[in-house]
Write a structure and sequence with these properties.
The chain is an alpha/beta fold and 190 residues long. The protein has helices at 13-17, 30-43, 57-69, 94-101, 115-132, 144-154, and strands at residues 3-8, 50-53, 75-77, 137-142, 169-175, 178-186. Strands 3-2-4-1-5-6 form a 6-stranded mixed sheet, sandwiched between helices. β2, α3 (57-69) and β3 form a beta-alpha-beta unit. It is globular and about 50 Å long. It starts with a strand and ends with a strand.
């Protein structure tokens, strides 16, 4: 049976400022590093076989904290796990977007990665993961919007009522009838 633990990276300065991060390579802030360490302490009490992570700094730093606590479990960095590319909105706040493009900015072509493309790379990642590592317990460290798209594809019947918090853990188990979400957005370590 395959089990996946999906983790959103720790906090960054841009999270605090409510700036769109997208594929910008923003590191964790001091609080984010503390969150990642608390997450690592929590996961250090569990058994995991592999860690996959986005290569962006905020996910990399979170994964590295967890890896150390799990006895230097190897991390496989995969570009398919990066955050949805935000195009021209990266680095901006909602107020800045409204000022620059107006209230209809979401309907403009600002170079934001298409949802279908995000879903496709998530599907390809998962297919490779399952073929190469069947029946393993695997941690994936990624980003909020990417994870939301990923979860909607794997467990379409599951209703995500709240946005993913930094260092949250969501677990999925693949059974005979497909994927089920056993835990969503858990931050009990904080």
């Amino acid at each position: 049976m395959t089990q996946i633990g999906i983790i959103r990276h720790g906090r960054t300065a841009w999270n605090v400022e409510r700036r769109a991060q997208g594929s910008s390579d923003i590191p964790l802030d001091e609080n984010g590093m503390e969150e990642a360490q608390k997450l690592a302490d929590r996961l250090g009490e569990e058994e995991w076989d592999l860690i996959f992570a986005s290569p962006l700094k905020r996910a990399r730093q979170t994964a590295e904290c967890v890896s150390v606590k799990l006895g230097n479990l190897p991390i496989i960095f995969d570009d398919r796990l990066v955050e949805v590319n935000g195009g021209l909105i990266e680095g901006t706040t909602e107020d800045e977007r409204l000022e620059k493009w107006g209230e209809g900015w979401r309907g403009l072509d600002l170079g934001i990665e298409k949802t279908d493309d995000v879903i496709q790379r998530g599907k390809e990642f998962l297919e490779d993961l399952l073929n190469e590592h069947p029946d393993k317990k695997i941690l994936i460290v990624s980003h909020g919007l990417f994870i939301a798209h990923f979860l909607k594809q794997l467990v379409p019947q599951f209703e995500m009522k709240e946005a993913l918090r930094n260092t949250s853990v969501s677990t999925l188990i693949k059974g005979e009838k497909g994927w089920s979400c056993e835990m969503y957005n858990c931050t009990k370590h904080l």
